[in-house]
Amino acid sequence: MSTSTSTHALHIDWTRCDGRGLCTEILERALTRDDWGYPVATRGLPERRTDAPLREDELEDAEEAVRLCPLAALRLTRVTVPAAAGGARRSGRSA
Questions:
Q1: Of 29, 32, 3, 9, nearest to 19 (Cα)?
Q2: Chain-wide mean pLDDT for the chain?
Q3: What whole-number distance in Å separates Cα of residue 83 and Cα of residue 75?
Q4: Is 14 exposed, middle or buried (0-12, 13-18, 19+ CB in 10 A)?
Q5: 38: which strand partners?
Q6: Rounded CA separation 71/93 (Å)
Q7: 26-35 confidence digits (pLDDT tens)
Q8: Which residue of 2, 33, 42, 73 shows the fewest CB atoms closer than 10 Å?
């Protein structure tokens, strides 16, 4: 029987963001800026650059970044990661 763990991610809504960079200053280990100044995740899958996986010790800073974002372009989400013998699965189903 496999179990799952829950973690948090910071979602960046690029349609709202204007690239001011406050979030990248607050979460400098989780976010960086792209060539146009928009925040992108430093961890995770390249195609999911708008969803930054967060470590437990970054959660408080992420909450602050969400509160301080002038355009409400950030949102905290909860992500469930299955603990399977072959690694995490995207579907969330166990074999």
A1: 32
A2: 85
A3: 25
A4: middle
A5: none
A6: 36
A7: 999 999 999 9
A8: 2
Q: For 46-59, what is each residue's pLDDT tens digit?
A: 888 999 999 999 99
| Rounded-to-integer distance, Cα 28 and Cα 9, Å | 15
Which tokens sit at 10? 């910071």
> Using CA atoms, how far apart are residues 87 and 78, in angstroms rounded to an integer?
19
What do you get for the CA distance between the two ends of the chain, in Å? 9
State the pLDDT at residue 1. Answer: 54
Length of the chain: 95
CB 31 within 8 A of CB 48: no
Instruction: Classify residue 17 by its DSSP letter.
Output: -
Q: With contact defined as beta carbons under 8 Å apart, do 13 and 75 qualify?
A: yes
Considering Cα of 15, then 69, then 26, then 64, what sign does the dihedral take?
Answer: negative
